Amino acid sequence: MPYALLALVLVILDQVVKYLVLTYIPLGGYVPFLPHIACLTYVQNTGAAFSMFSEHTWMLTLLSLVVSVRLVLVLVKG
């Protein structure tokens, strides 16, 4: 159960950050996150692995679904 809660919190945090980036950073723009260490940059990637699957995102979606279901089954049984 603690893993499910952690996963939920991380998914919510991910969505909040995505919303804030879409709302406040123009495409190609950046905002310092940790000064002189890291910044948030708004870029768009339509695929995965350097856009190698940009024309076949359905395959990545299917793979993600299969892996997610398998992980849930492992967590429920364990």
Set out the fold topology.
Elements: H1 2-24, E1 30-34, E2 38-41, H2 57-77
Briefly note the structural class of the backbone: mainly alpha
Q: Tell me the strand order in the biggest sheet.
A: 1-2
Total strand segments:
2
Mean pLDDT: 88
One letter per element, helices H and strands E, the order comes to HEEH
Radius of gyration (Å):
16 Å
Helical residue percent? 55-70%
**Contiguous uncertain segments of 5+ residues:** none
Helix count, DSSP H or I runs of 4 or more residues: 2
Q: In one word, what is the shape?
A: flat
Distance between the termini: 11 Å
Proportion of residues in β-strands: 5-15%
Main β-sheet, in a few words?
2 strands, antiparallel
In short:
56% of the residues lie in helices and 12% in strands.
Q: Could you please describe the fold and organization of this structure?
A:
The protein is mainly α and 78 residues long. Helices cover 56% and strands 12% of the residues. The protein has two helices and two strands; from the N terminus they run H-E-E-H. The chain has helices spanning 2-24, 57-77; strands spanning 30-34, 38-41. It has a two-stranded antiparallel ribbon with strand order 1-2. Strand 1 and strand 2 (38-41) form a beta hairpin. It is flat and about 45 Å long. The relative contact order is 0.09.
Task: Summarize this structure as a short list of keywords or feature phrases.
78 residues, two-stranded antiparallel sheet, single chain, flat, mainly alpha
